[in-house]
Specification:
heterodimer, A: mainly alpha, 14 helices, 78% helix, B: alpha/beta, six-stranded mixed β-sheet, four-stranded antiparallel β-sheet, 11 helices, globular
């Protein structure tokens, strides 16, 4: 596809540019040339930056802004790619990565950690674990019955999601209303302010691996999106491939919650935008989704940081931007849906 | 000459928890045959097709392809031998026709594949063979039902399988497309492809199939040469509808309902004996239909 081929370099360039511009934005704005000078000096040892400015800019860029921007890009890419994968394998362009309850489970895990543990690491581990537990429960419920696997998985996801939403309410109810409850509530709205280099590294590698693997499996996604029977008749071990893809998507989605709490709508909307640009062929769509998702979340995070003096939780911004956007897309994309 | 059966179903039963769908089915299909499954709605035709594709597991008995139990071979191996042409459907995603046909190459690929030049050529050839190359870049969701059916057949061709299992391929197609579909099936059958298809139109069986299998309430009620099996009596037993199977001048047969709005007399008398010379253009169209018939092998 023609557009697809030209689109990759263009999108990569936009991504790098957006990341660069975002480094200059914030409470302490830095002029773009100053930033370029800093990085030229830091990376290639070209030019000169005064020691004092060097230290200040170093801590500003490298310690504070860069992890945050990289996290935004990773989360955007992960959610978009898992969303696109879910939409193809559940043969429904309206599903999102939260379909099997991973976000509900992860939220419950996070809240549980915040109430019963002092350690932030414990919170992260619980978040990740319960994201997986929720998906396993969905699959377990689907496995208990015979019949249309896709439909059963969706229903399993509804049940599991509802279960963990209720459990989350219990945790909120028993949480200390002065410190814990606001912390939980704010975490569930999503935010990138707690990201640091260490957690970024720990979650980034599996997320990138997940994106790459799903991209490599994208040819199978096309066949899966024609329905189970056809996919199987095309020689695919439907159950295995689907479980593997669900595992990867769950891994990636759960890690986004570990990094930045609940960020909704990205996994639903970005695949649609990408599909409008390059068509539904997953071999092109998946990498394009990763790039557009990364760009989108970097921009949304900038908006969250800059719009008011107080930072708005990014989950709220993605929803506020996403919902009207979705309403518009719904009209445009309806043609190819029936 | 006795042919070695390509597909063999032995004492096979299938059912869901409470309901038996197919009971003790035995049949053997030889290479190159066109086999048509006939039967009322819900009789188990589609289920039998899905079982032969390995999409469902028999409760009892087994199904063999070339002597091997299809449950013991990999889906990939089976996909290279048997292609599934589902009922014309709409995809949820507007894939290009070419992308749909390329899916047929998946059984020939390993993990993490990219389509090669050969795959592209095979897909291209398949489209060309069915004269739908001009659709290659159109969205699968936006072409007509007949074109979608041809796309799915092109995908089956690209798959490289020599046996096609088709679930009511003519349903949802307009009259012209139905005839063109039958034409394609005959053409491919002459090249050695085997067809197992279900249909709701006994005429389609009479026109192109070698063999008809009638299924009712999950059991095979008759199985044999179309001309022997399909007659007024068997159709009445199968569909509970009174139909006359009439022979036209040549060997072509048509089904005429016995009673429709009081036209009983007209339908009952053999068409040819009516005191009426068919007009010239009707003769023309008759020849056209006759050309659909399968020539001697």
């Amino acid at each position: 596809m023609k557009i697809g081929k030209n689109l990759f370099p263009i999108l990569s360039l936009i991504l790098i540019l957006m990341a660069g511009v975002s480094l200059t934005l914030g409470k302490y704005p830095v002029a773009f040339p100053d930033m370029v000078r800093f990085f030229l000096y830091k990376v290639f040892n070209i030019g000169y930056v005064a020691t004092e400015a060097y230290q200040f800019l170093g801590s500003l860029f490298i310690d504070i802004r860069l992890p945050r921007i990289l996290a935004a890009a990773l989360i955007g890419a992960s959610l978009s790619v898992s969303g696109a994968a879910f939409q193809a394998m559940f043969v429904n362009p309206l599903v999102s990565p939260s379909l099997l309850g991973v976000l509900a489970g992860a939220s419950f895990g996070a809240a549980l950690g915040m109430v019963f543990s002092k350690s932030w690491h414990a919170v992260q581990v619980l978040t990740f674990t319960f994201g997986f537990v929720a998906v396993l429960i969905s699959i377990g419920i689907a496995r208990m019955h015979k019949g249309n696997t896709i439909l059963l998985l969706v229903l399993g996801g509804v049940i599991s999601g509802a279960l963990f939403t209720s459990l989350l309410s219990i945790v909120k109810y028993i949480a200390d209303p002065y410190n814990q409850l606001p912390a939980i509530t704010q975490w569930l709205m999503g935010g990138l302010s707690l990201v640091d280099g260490k957690i970024l590294l720990a979650t980034g590698i599996p997320q990138i691996a997940g994106i790459v693997l799903i991209a490599l499996f994208s040819g199978y996604l096309n066949a899966l999106s024609m329905g189970d029977e056809e996919a199987r008749a095309l020689g695919i071990h439907v159950e295995w491939i689907r479980m593997l893809l669900i595992f990867l998507a769950t891994l990636m989605s759960a890690l986004t919650v570990v990094l930045a709490g609940m960020i909704g709508w990205v996994g639903l909307i970005i695949p649609h935008v990408a599909r409008m640009l390059v068509g539904p062929d997953n071999k092109v769509l998946i990498p394009v989704c990763a790039l557009i998702g990364a760009i989108y979340l970097i921009i949304v995070d900038d908006v969250s940081r800059m719009l008011f003096t107080v930072e708005i939780p990014i989950g709220i911004t993605t929803s506020l931007i996403g919902i009207p956007f979705f309403a518009v897309i719904l009209r445009k994309a309806k043609k190819g849906w029936n | 000459m006795e042919l070695k059966p390509l597909i063999k179903v032995e004492g096979m039963s299938f059912g869901y928890t409470q309901k038996i769908v197919l009971n003790d089915v035995n049949l053997a299909i030889a290479e190159g045959e066109i086999v048509t499954l006939l039967g009322p709605n819900g009789c188990g035709k589609s289920t039998l097709l899905k079982l032969m594709l390995g999409l469902l597991r028999p409760v009892r008995g087994s199904i063999f392809f070339n002597g091997e139990d299809i449950l013991h071979v990999s889906p990939k191996f089976l996909a290279k031998e048997i292609a599934y042409v589902p009922q014309t459907h709409r995809s949820s995603f507007p894939y290009a026709v070419m992308d749909v046909v390329l899916m047929g190459r998946i059984p020939h690929k390993t993990f993490f594949f990219r389509y090669s030049k050969t795959d592209m050529r095979v897909a291209h050839d398949a489209l060309e063979r069915l004269s739908i190359l001009h659709l290659a870049n159109r969205a699968y969701t936006e072409i007509s039902g007949g074109e979608r059916q041809l796309t799915l057949i092109a995908r089956a061709l690209a798959q490289g399988a020599k046996t096609f299992i088709m679930d009511e391929p003519a349903s949802g197609l307009d009259y012209g497309n139905q005839l063109r579909l039958l034409d394609q099936i005959i053409k491919l059958s002459r090249e050695g492809y085997t067809f197992i298809k279900s249909t709701h139109s006994p005429e389609h069986a009479l026109w192109i199939a070698d063999r008809a299998i009638m299924i009712k309430n999950g059991a095979i009620v008759s199985d044999g040469e179309c001309d022997d099996v399909i007659n007024g009596e068997s159709l009445f037993r199968l569909y509970n509808a009174r139909v006359n199977v009439l022979r036209l001048n040549g060997s072509l047969r048509v089904c005429v309902p016995e009673t429709i709005c009081g036209c009983q007399e007209l339908a009952k008398s053999p068409w040819m004996s009516l005191d009426m010379t068919p007009p010239e253009d009707m003769m023309e169209s008759k020849r056209e239909v006759c050309s659909l018939q399968k020539g001697p092998k």
